[in-house]
Amino acid sequence: MAKRIEEAINIIKMNDRGGYTVPTNRLYPYQWNWDSGFTALGIWHFNKWRAWLEIMALLDAQWQDGMIPHIVFRHNDPDYFPGPAIWDTNTEPPTSGHSQPPVLASIIWRIVQMGTEYDKRKAIEVFPKLMAYHRWFSAARDPKNSGVISIIHPWESGRDNCPDWDIGMRNIVVPDNLESYARRDTSHVDSDQRPTQEQYDRFITIVKFGRECGWDNQTIHAEGPFLMADPGVQFIFLRASRDLLAMAQHLGMDMAVDEIRGWVDRVEAGSDFLWNEEVGGYCARDLRTGQFSDAITNASTLSFFADVGSPEQRASMAAHCRRILDASSFGMPSWDPDHPAFESQRYWRGPVWAIMNHMVISGLEDAGLADLAARVRRDTINLIDERGMAEYFDPRDGDGLGGMDFSWTAAIYLDLNKTEVAASLAAGG
Ligand code: DGY
Fold it and tell me: What is the rounded CA–CA span in Å between residue 286 and residue 300?
């Protein structure tokens, strides 16, 4: 078996904690929502049963109101902060109090399209849970039916410290009585590759607010310290809803079709709210003040993944993609390298991420931008071939950053090389 394929499978197996997979050892010792989704896709290429177990474990932590939380705590690990006591969600299993980009329906639809009757049966089994999740996102994060999906914490975007959130974070007042706490992330990873302390105080301020109002979504949406719209969550929700619609039709779930169409139509129309004329692209926007972020991110370029925009808007986004990909040989960076706030090594303020590249590739392929899609695909595979399965990478020189032996990077590598993986397993690798 090719060395990297074997390594990818071994990393995922090594991160298996018995029914669920951690993103990486120590830095992230629990089950994360979108990590698990992407990881399930990777596992599926070598063990279909185990891939579904990953998905079922995540769904097992779904709240009664339909939310799938961003972290599931099945034990208490002093190596991670903030742990279950800080979130205090009073759920079983204990979890965090908000969600993460809803990639799950898209991943399951991809599996069903590649899979067999077994996958179809599993998809039928989880379909009501996916419906409940999308219903929750629509109701809790867009209570006025505006078609704009909000996030209540930068962590809900999954792009924790992106400069997109600086506008909303600036307006957060850190209370004098914020509990003192000790970060753990910077004892596992170089602090230059992680969010700053100032940002962490604000992250924890939002958690404190959520905890103190009992994670009541109405209160959080109306009065919480942070409320922004994220092109990432907006476009991922829209794409996942389109995929859910295709899946409903494929599985004969006719009674779900109208409800899903409602989400698709509304969120598609609402996406124009994120169009920043000055940038000529989709940008994050503060929902309290209306202020726009002012740069193209890898999440902006998911507009193709979501299939939104007028012909002029699509042309402008394609031009941004070309310009940015000319400056990065490793796929789409998390912040525009031509913008002064770009930091090539700091987490979501510049680095490239395999999972984002993976969604970017799908979007560019669907949009008929085949040359760009092929480039991001080739660059992502080469990057991992040369640098291994780091959490994220420096877009200037491809240096691997953050946590190492990372499950979702390994999973994306397996999915991008799925023909080789299948051939290698068939040959008894
Ligand atoms: C972390 O701990 O950095 C996570 O990204 C929060 O979900």
Answer: 15
Helices 104-114, 231-251: inter-axial angle, 10-degree rounding: 40
Confidence band for 428, pLDDT divided at 50, 70 and 90: confident
* Ligand 1 proximity of 405 Cβ (cutoff 6 Å): no
Residue 346's alpha-carbon distances to 91, 181, 297, 324, in angstroms, are 33, 22, 14, 18
Least Cα distance to 150 among 34, 282, 262, 270 occurs for 270
Pocket flag, ligand 1, residue 392 (CB < 6 Å): no
Whether 74 shows a pLDDT value over 70: the answer reads yes
- The residues annotated as belonging to the active site are 160, 391
* Mutational pocket test of ligand 1: of 22, 30, 99, 160, the residue with most ligand atoms within 8 Å of the beta carbon: 160
Amino acid at residue number 61 = A
Taking the CB of residue 336, how many other CB atoms lie within 10 A of it? 23
Tell me which residue of 231, 226, 234, 228 sits closest to 199, measured CA to CA. Answer: 226
73 ligand 1 Cβ < 6 A = no
pLDDT score of 250: 98
Helix (H, G, I), strand (E, B) or coil at 151: strand
Radius of gyration of the chain from its Cα atoms, rounded to whole angstroms: 20
**Is a pLDDT exceeding 90 seen at residue 1?**
no
Q: Could you tell me if 190 and 351 are in contact, meaning their C-beta atoms sit under 8 angstroms apart?
A: no
Whole-angstrom distance, CA of residue 343 vs CA of residue 393: 12
Q: Which residues contact 225 (CB under 8 A, 6 or more apart)?
A: 171, 172, 173, 202, 205, 206, 209
- pTM comes to 0.98
Calculate ∠ Cα 26-30-32, nearest 5°: 120
What average pLDDT does the structure give for the chain?
97
Asked if residue 148 lies in contact with residue 229, where contact means CB atoms within 8 angstroms, the answer is: yes
Distance 155 CA to ligand 1 centre (A): 7
H/E run at residue 374: helix 370-387
C-alpha 349/C-alpha 160 separation (Å) is 9
Q: Whose CA is nearest to atom 7 of ligand 1?
A: 155
